[in-house]
Design brief:
The strands form 8 sheets. The protein has a 6-stranded antiparallel beta sheet, sandwiched between helices. A 5-stranded antiparallel beta sheet has the order 5-6-10-8-9. The protein has a 4-stranded mixed beta sheet with strand order 1-2-4-3, with helices on both faces. The protein is built from 40 helices and 29 strands. Strand 16 and strand 17 form a beta hairpin. The protein is 42% helix and 13% strand. By secondary structure, the protein is α/β, with parallel strands linked by helices.
């Protein structure tokens, strides 16, 4: 067997850091002990804390980092999103994160191919391909969060992917960096030619292995047999039988190699069709056996997916909001199959559905089979399936972790394999294990909560895994890792599955690429038989709000602070670590360093830079809103400021007057000294005050003309020449009562003026609550942890809105989306609160003649609109009013978060760093929150307005006739 040397680093981590400082900007190097812990966490149940985290943003920087680590003999691990489950993305060496700077994506050949960097989120690739009716082949459940780098490095598959559409099978070309710093681009003939000369020994070695395998008929037969199943256990040995050229072998070995052979820096996929017509049925069977038999019967029908869910899995999600009622009524033992069919048109889809019915004739179901094309029901069925793994985390005993294993049986032995697996669970006392997976491929996941703290638990888990490995890999000839990657979790069992000869082959491959074992050591191949039992992640109880978190990382893609400080997952990691350290009697030097760091830097990372926008809850499979935990921390921290909050709340009209006066003074100042000098002076004051004084930015508008609310108010239901008019209560938020139109745009108007104009034009009588200047939804206080005063202001508002709306007789329109979300759960249920986009889309558009403006508009859907499910309505409204609409990618929240854009301006700057390039060429932007519009204006190079202003400019009353010709307008 080829020797692999593993030696200790030849230089200290400080010396390596100093070396890297000469090659990279220091901001690329993360040494802070808390951030190293947070950034080093992935979705597995293992934990290692990296000695250094490096964030290169270019390929050349990556080459420099790899070179420095190689020179210092430091092990390194490459990381994209960190959503992998088997421990392949953690290290105690150097963690190299590929995120910002690695997000380039190009659609090629009218969608037939797509070229992607490793930092592109999988769902983004599909968004780019959607206009061509195409998608990438892999479709893991985490596709909205995981990145291309991980998808390729793990050869991830998913629900519909099977073995035909995974990365290995749909690879067109890739670009990689090897351990010696060489860059190979298999799409570039010059690069390939140069590589053939410089790395002839490597290619000769791969071709020799290929020849040896193909001449060993038994081994070649075994390899082919293994890959008719889903299989990510060990290296892609099928590359040795599928290809003869060394470059082709190398490229396909990189797929699924989990960063142990090199780093993929770009990959081009051959895309696959995405049929436009889809239907799904949730079919219930009396037991697992009949569901398995049904799966085999469906094997030849051309269905897109068959997902199995056992009764325990269904039970784990049955009480979540929106789940089908029949889940709760299923008998014990019942099993569901989610059957998905997809076709190009209706007749073909109907034929496919009929084919499914015929295939299942004679197999007992608990209910008649019913397919649906309804998008809501279709999405609900898939929500059931995708929520199974995280749902276990929600119901597990606190302090335990969640283990997910990922096996594949030959499909013809699925029923037998499932029965044996279930028996193994019972034999080892895992009665709470649940089973689900991609049944059509024989690929099943079993999930169970596991505590490792109590005596005997580690041994029980070890015994179960030994039994499962023998059962799946040996007795049934299946795969121990079908799609989640080998990682650390299954590395000790690779030889058991593959046998001594194939296992030795893998070590030879490793030696050709990485003889020093510096690239992700112990991942995939290990000499440590108990590796899967070491470095287990602690999950102590820390806060009831987040204790259900399993650290899957689904939340991270929508967090505005994800590249400034921490993500929601990472905030939870640090909160748990603080609790864990506090419970220890003795601390190691590293633990003592982290404890001290909590006193020095944690407040900024965990609290100050958290926008508390709630977007994390929209992605979390169990609905955890980490912002609620942060707000609770703020409330505790600001206990001494509650009286000040009370005084401000009791004199709120005066406070907003002072704010408007400040804006007038600022306008005067900028008129005298100019924006540039004003910004520099303000920045200096902001820093000198310890960020207590808000920082002025040029995007701050003029003061709002509050006088417009004092105009005459028609009585409810008053008549006009056209007949009775409907009434609506209009509540102007404190932000729109303070911030007026952009000072640099003479044609812009304040939001209050626009709303009043639109409502009148649409035939509404407007009712303004009494004391509008004193009212507030409470967000100005709750966002700072002042919950007592926030509650008081909400009660005040509730009282006045009940009076104005005649106890809910008339709807109440809020002009700012976040405020309409804030009051949910705080107002009388008789009040019919209307969010501005929803009201404009559902009620104003039908009353107005809209002529699209001849302009290109950038749309920012606020986090509150996202959370209320109004994204589609928002975009539809904009498209009704403008010729072309652009929705920037990757900006779910601007990070302005009330006044954080002025108090913590670096948060908004980080969140919107990629905005300007995406909206270049637009005439202006629109949103539905005045403060968000300020942040977007500051960082886009455009002026952002309320989307209601766009509607106001593009519309006229329906009574005035038909649609006029398209107009050009500048807002």
């Amino acid at each position: 067997m080829t020797a692999i040397t593993t030696t200790k680093p030849s230089i200290s981590i400080d010396e390596l850091t100093a070396m890297l400082t000469e090659r990279l900007s220091t901001e690329r190097l993360v040494q802070d002990p808390l951030r190293r812990l947070a950034y080093g966490t992935d979705a597995s149940f293992y934990r290692l804390v990296p000695s250094l985290v490096v964030r290169p943003e270019t390929e050349q920087e990556l080459v420099e980092v790899i070179g420095a680590c190689r020179e210092g003999n430091w092990p390194m691990t490459f990381r994209a999103a960190g959503t992998s489950l088997s421990g392949q993305a953690i290290t105690d060496g150097v963690l190299i994160q590929l995120g910002r700077g690695w997000r380039d994506a190009r659609v090629l050949d009218d969608g037939a191919r797509i070229d992607l960097q490793p930092g592109v989120i999988g769902a983004r690739a599909n968004e780019l391909l959607a206009p061509f009716g195409r998608k990438i082949g892999p479709d893991p459940a985490s596709i909205a969060s995981c990145m291309i780098g991980g998808i390729a490095a793990n050869n991830a598959s998913g629900m519909c992917c099977g073995t035909a559409q995974n990365t290995y099978r749909t690879l067109d070309s890739l670009r990689m960096v090897l351990l010696d710093g060489t860059v190979l681009d298999t799409a570039d003939a010059d690069s390939v030619a140069a590589f053939r000369q410089s790395h002839a020994a490597l290619l000769d070695g791969l071709e020799r292995l290929s020849t040896n395998v193909r001449t060993d008929l038994e081994l070649a037969k075994r390899i082919r047999h293994k890959y008719r199943l889903k299989n990510t256990t060990g290296y892609a040995l099928n590359s040795l039988v599928d290809f003869r050229d060394g470059v082709d072998i190398l490229a396909h070995l990189m797929i699924g190699s989990e960063g142990t052979l090199g780093c993929i820096t770009r990959i081009t996929y051959q895309s696959v069709p995405e049929p436009p017509r889809k239907a799904a049925a949730l079919i219930f069977f009396p037991d697992l056996g009949s569901a398995c038999r049904a799966t085999i019967a469906l094997r030849g029908t051309g269905v897109a997916a068959v997902e199995l869910m056992d009764r325990a899995g269904l039970r784990s999600v049955e009480r979540q909001p929106g789940m089908p009622e029949q889940l709760r009524e299923l008998p014990d033992g019942a099993t569901a199959l989610l059957v998905d069919v997809r076709e190009e048109d209706g007749p073909r889809l109907e034929a496919r559905i009929e084919e499914v019915g015929q295939a299942l004739e004679g197999i007992t179901t608990l209910e008649p089979i019913a397919f649906t094309e309804d998008p809501v029901s279709y999405a609900l069925y898939w929500k059931v399936r995708k929520g199974l793994f995280p749902a276990v985390g929600a119901v597990r005993d606190l302090g335990t972790t969640v283990v997910i294993e990922d096996v594949a049986f030959p499909i013809e032995r699925l029923e037998e394999g499932v029965a044996a697996l279930t028996e193994a669970f019972k034999r080892h006392g895992y009665d709470d294990a649940l089973l689900f997976g991609h049944a059509l491929e024989g690929n099943l996941h079993f999930v169970f909560p596991q505590g490792f703290e109590r005596p005997g638990e580690k041994e029980r888990y070890q015994a179960l895994m030994a039994d499962v490995a023998q059962l799946v890999a040996v007795d049934f000839g299946g795969s121990l890792k079908a799609e989640h990657g080998t990682g650390r979790n299954m590395a000790p069992f690779v030889e058991l599955e593959w046998g001594e000869e194939a296992y030795a082959l893998m070590w030879q491959i490793k030696a050709l690429f990485d003889p020093g074992h510096l690239l992700n050591p112990d991942v995939m191949l290990t000499r440590n038989p108990t590796l899967h039992l070491e470095n287990l992640k602690p999950l102590p109880e820390a806060d009831p709000i987040v204790d259900r978190c399993i650290e899957c990382g689904f939340c991270e893609a929508v967090c505005p602070s994800r590249e400034l400080t921490l993500t929601p997952r990472q905030r939870i990691v640090l909160t748990r670590e603080r609790v864990r350290l506090a419970a220890l009697d003795e601390l190691s030097d590293e633990e003592r360093e982290r404890r001290d760091a909590f006193e020095q830097s944690a407040l900024y990372d965990i609290d100050v830079t958290c926008a508390a926008d709630g977007m994390c809850g929209t992605r979390c499979p169990v609905g955890i809103n980490t912002g609620e935990m942060v707000l609770a921390m703020r409330q505790e921290r600001h206990v001494g400021k509650q009286e000040l909050a009370r005084r401000i709340g009791r004199h709120f009209s005066g406070a907003t007057k002072i704010a408007r006066g400040g804006l007038r003074a600022a306008s005067l100042g900028r008129g005298i000294i100019g924006d540039a000098l004003m910004a520099r002076a303000s920045q200096g004051v902001h820093k000198a005050s310890g960020k207590r004084v808000p920082q002025w930015i040029p995007a701050i508008p003029a003061a709002a003309p509050i006088r417009v609310l004092k105009s005459s108010r028609p009585s409810a239901g008053a008549s006009s020449a056209e007949g009775p008019r409907d009434s609506v209560v209009y509540f102007p938020s404190c932000a729109t009562r303070v911030f007026g139109a952009d000072k640099r745009d003479d044609s812009a108007r304040a939001v209050m003026e626009i709303v009043l104009s639109l409502l009148d034009r649409a035939g509404y009588d407007v009712i303004i609550p009494e004391m509008p200047g004193h009212l507030c939804c409470g967000m100005a206080f709750s966002s700072k942890g002042m919950d007592n005063e926030a509650t008081h202001k909400a009660r005040e508002l509730n009282r006045e809105l009940l009076v104005a709306s005649q106890n809910g007789r008339f709807p109440v329109l809020f002009d700012t989306s976040p405020c309409s979300l804030q009051v949910e759960g705080h107002l009388d249920e008789r009040l019919k609160v209307q969010e501005p986009v929803a009201f404009a889309h559902d009620h104003l558009l039908p009353r107005l003649e809209v002529t699209p403006l001849d302009c290109k508009v950038a749309v920012h859907v606020t986090c509150s609109s996202h959370r209320k499910g109004l994204t589609d309505s928002f975009v539809e409204l904009a498209r009704a009013c403008a010729r072309e609409v652009v929705v920037p990618d990757g900006i779910s929240c601007c990070g302005f978060a009330g006044d954080k854009g002025l108090r913590v301006p670096e948060l908004t700057a980080s969140s919107l760093r990629d905005l300007s390039g995406q909206v270049a060429g637009c005439d202006f932007g629109v949103s539905n929150s005045r403060t968000c519009e300020m942040g977007m204006t500051q960082h886009s190079g455009l002026t952002y307005h309320s989307i209601l202003e766009l509607l106001d400019r593009a519309s006229q009353p329906t009574a005035q006739g038909g649609v006029s010709e398209e107009r050009t307008v500048s807002l």
